Amino acid sequence: MLFENLNIIEPILKAIKDYGYTNPTPIQEQTIPALLEGHDVEGCAQTGTGKTAAFAIPTLQLLCNDQTFKKGNRSIKALVLAPTRELAIQIGESFTAYGKYTGLKNTTIFGGVSQGSQVRALRSGVDILIATPGRLLDLIQQKYINLQHIEIFVLDEADRMLDMGMGHDVKRIIAKLPRERQSMLFSATMPESISKLMDSILIKPVKVEVVPDALAIDTIKQSVFFVEKSNKKALLIKLLEDKSFDSVLVFSRTKHGANKITDELTKVGIESQAIHGNKSQNARQLALSNFKEKKIRVLVATDIAARGIDVDDLSLVINFDLPDVPETYVHRIGRTGRAGAEGVAFSFCDQDEKECLRDIEKLMEKSVPVNEDHPYPMGSSTTVTNTLGASENNNSRKKEYSKKQRPNSYFRKNKKIANK
Ligand code: AMP
Predict the structure, then answer these.
(1) Does the C-beta of 51 come closer than 6 Å to ligand 1?
(2) Record: fold of 3-210
(3) How far apart are CA 154 and CA 201, in angstroms?
(4) What is the pTM of this model?
(5) Domain 213-419 in this protein, CATH class
(6) Mean pLDDT throughout 125-152?
(7) Domain map of the chain by residue range?
(8) Between 210 and which of 45, 258, 326, 387 could a Cys-Cys bridge form, CB atoms 3.0 to 4.6 Å apart?
(9) What sign results for the dihedral spanned by CA atoms 245, 368, 46, 87?
(10) Do the domains spanning 3-210 and 213-419 agree at the CATH topology level?
(11) Do the beta carbons of residue 177 and residue 206 sit within 8 Å?
(12) How far apart are the C-alpha atoms of 30 and 9, rounded to whole Å?
């Protein structure tokens, strides 16, 4: 399938080509036609699937065809809500990139910074507004923003918004939207709370689901290092001696741990910064842009801060700590190996984390190969029971499980579209 086959108008097609994209991702292939036909969409997808373009491209196209825009009237006609400043900025950049030949204007507003420049941008007139909920409500209250002309509403990373305690704000915003509109909601998971929220936003939505599939994960070279907790930092420094890993994302379970890792790396001269919820918006944004521009080699992140970070050319993901939730492991390692590139993921596993590894392997229905060739091996690493039942030595752990033995539906080939 090519973008040309999706009935996308010429100015947007040209911008997509400028960006170097030729083939839509599965979520784009499903979502773009549904939105262009005027349906609401419920999308179960996470960052890395191409979901931003999946809603940005049709939104731009629908607005281009809008009569008021054609007559030269500018008012906020599309609203995208995102949970964090980082994600909001990335979405804004996508709208700018795909919309550069359309004449449509977008702006991004978020809290944690002064509102002056955001208000000036709003005053100059915008068609598409990308916002975090708190700042949006603030500016609505101050009468800088009016949502009465909204025709398209996008709620991105809805599960994360509820996780971050933004549910109430989101409901207040929805109550201010015109009833007649087209809406879409994207969420990586669909718990009960999201289903309820969806019922209040979407009307007969087309359901689109894309979760990581086995093939995508299989392109990532994974390995686990059994190591004592006290040796993890030394092992990290050792692994970073390999300079071919020029862009490394390290996951830490805690904010405090992330700070300690960066301190340790800085001491030995490895440029790194931490990104987590205790850092100010500005510090987070600076760390992220330094990482993207390759001014720092290592970014240390907690899971909540890392969701929404979109970094191309990530050469290595290191799980300094293993996550308690096995799906999080899949999301983390999915950061590398994007767009067909070969990714590498290393995981450190101490005595207390063997249970987590067991759950991860169960979910993936295959074992993660053990790297025993490192200077800080854990005494008991060769006697652990393999998480899938076989005794653990290098060979048995390397044994791949055949597709026939994979009853788990998590990694099913998962292109699903159905009218609810
Ligand atoms: P997202 O899931 O929206 O965060 O996108 C993940 C990454 O995929 C971003 O770096 C996009 O620029 C990239 N991307 C989106 N659509 C495509 C496409 N059709 N072809 C190649 N890369 C894409």
Answers:
(1) yes
(2) Rossmann fold (3.40.50)
(3) 10
(4) 0.64
(5) alpha beta
(6) 97
(7) 3-210, 213-419
(8) 45
(9) negative
(10) yes
(11) no
(12) 17
